[in-house]
Design brief:
- The protein is an alpha/beta fold.
- The protein has 2 domains: 136 residues, Rossmann fold, CATH 3.40.50; 132 residues, 3-Layer(aba) Sandwich (Rossmann fold).
- The protein contains 11 helices and 12 strands.
- Helix 5 crosses helix 10.
Length: 289
């Protein structure tokens, strides 16, 4: 019997999830159907009920519905994983006869990709996260004091910083408005003996999509060992170009995270753990066509 899954969000036309999940299913010769469905904010509960009535086995949740999915999970007393509970956001639902599972695979997906690119070799790392929107919720719970020295979250407006600081209360995290960030990290840098200010920089803003100006000093990126833009496209994003031109040593996009978090969802649904390297390469090739 063919199992049915879907990804729900708005917008959704751009999603690569159906192709990624199809490639995973082929690795195990599974009969697998996966579609993308536009669901506007506030209507997630009705959409999930419709999926259940049509015998779907689970779904992924993307923007702007992850917090709504978490609230539904509490309201319906579904089993909530530790990852989803800590993030207060859900991106994966698994429907079963006995119980529903709500999980969040964003953080583990990102860290598996970052470790592939050398993060696991770094100790007492200093981290800069640019942006304080919904994408950050699944990431912050993955940072721990035994591996990271400090995580600075910088944002233009104070509202999202305040919201995050209420959910993620740890002296590991530092929430800074952009103006205060410039005061703490001046533009001057020793060009002859440059030392990276951060070991990891993550762009969680939509600057690469919206075309907004990247209001971070170039000196912040100088000699940074690893920089990631959570967005992805067929060509390097505007943020990636900016980071490379500013002296970043290694700059990657978010495609690896996308495939890794999808692989974790696939494992939750099927108990099969797919290989991701070939899938990343295949999707990268398809994006370039």
């Amino acid at each position: 019997m063919k199992k049915k899954f879907a990804v729900l969000g708005d917008p959704i036309d751009h999603s690569w999830s159906p192709i990624i999940q199809k490639l995973f299913a082929e690795q195990f010769n599974l009969s697998f159907e996966y579609e993308k469905i536009k669901v506007v904010k506030g209507s997630l509960g009705n959409s999930i009920n419709e999926l259940i009535s049509k015998s779907f086995s689970g779904c992924n949740i993307t923007v702007p519905l992850k917090q709504e999915a978490y609230e539904l999970s509490i309201e319906n007393k579904w089993t909530i994983s530790k990852r989803a509970f800590n993030a207060k956001a859900v991106n994966t639902l698994c429907f079963s006869k006995d119980n529903f599972l709500a999980d969040n695979t964003d953080g583990v997906g990102l860290f598996r990709d970052l470790n592939r690119h050398g993060l696991s070799k770094t100790k007492d790392a200093k981290v800069l996260i640019i942006g304080a929107g919904g994408a950050v919720r699944g990431i912050l719970p993955m940072f721990s004091k035994d591996k990271f020295l400090n995580v600075s979250i910088v944002n233009r407006s104070d509202r999202n910083l305040q919201l995050l600081s209420k959910v993620f209360k740890s002296d590991l995290f530092e929430y800074i408005k952009i103006d205060n960030f410039y005061a703490k990290y001046p533009n001057s840098v020793d060009i002859e003996f440059p030392c990276p200010m951060f070991d990891l920089i993550i762009n969680a803003t939509s600057a690469s999509v919206s075309g907004d100006e990247i209001k971070i000093s170039k000196s912040i990126f100088l000699e940074c060992p690893l920089i990631v833009d959570l967005f992805y496209s067929s060509a390097p994003t505007a943020f990636m170009d900016f980071a490379l031109n500013s002296g970043g040593l290694k700059v990657i996009d978010g495609l690896g995270m996308l495939v890794e978090q999808a692989a974790e969802s696939f494992h939750i649904w099927t108990e099969n753990r797919p290989s991701v390297d070939e899938v990343i390469s295949n999707v990268r090739f398809l994006m370039s066509k």
